[in-house]
Amino acid sequence: FYLLARLRRMLSRAARRLRTQNLRAARLVIEIRYSDQREDVAQHCFTAMNTEIELLPVLRSVFDAALRRRVRVRRLTLRLCDLRGMVRQLSLFDAHSNIRVNAVTAAMDKICDRFGEGAIRFGYVA
To answer: How much is the pTM?
Structure first.
């Protein structure tokens, strides 16, 4: 659970950085180096996105694919790749939920800007 919580914090920080630079990522990569110096890598490509709400399900599936051994983890790396510029495109379907996600994310970003990165976080259900 600790590794996944750490990855979630890393993802929140990276997603926030993407939003401040008006970018979206289309690939998530997790690298795990174990204490015996072996490494496992897993990645997943998806449509470009930049909010934690959209990226968290991808993070969980990639983490489950990357963590293959029961050996002490020495290094954990999260990369968001295939960056693309932010393009406003009108959606024919599901526009209401997208507006809500963007509003929640913008509100959380404002709180983090004012009070610091640890002031607010998403809650997670196991």
So the answer is: 0.80
Give residue 97's pLDDT. Answer: 61
Please report which helix (H) or strand (E) contains residue 29, including its range: strand 23-34
The rounded distance, in Å, linking the Cα atoms of 58 and 53 is 10
Q: 115 to each of 23, 72, 111, how far by Cα in Å?
A: 24, 35, 6
Tens digit of pLDDT for each residue in 65-78? 999 899 999 999 99
- What six digits make up the tokens of 90? 């009108």
Question: Three-state DSSP class for 71?
Answer: coil
pLDDT tens digits, one per residue of 3-40 = 999 999 999 999 999 988 999 999 999 999 999 999 99
Distance CA 69, CA 66 (A): 9
In angstroms, the first-to-last Cα distance of the chain is 9
Q: Domain for residue 55, yes or no?
A: yes
Other residues' Cβ atoms within 10 Å of the Cβ of residue 108: 18
Number of separate domains in the chain: 1
Residue 7: CATH number of its domain: 3.30.1490.100
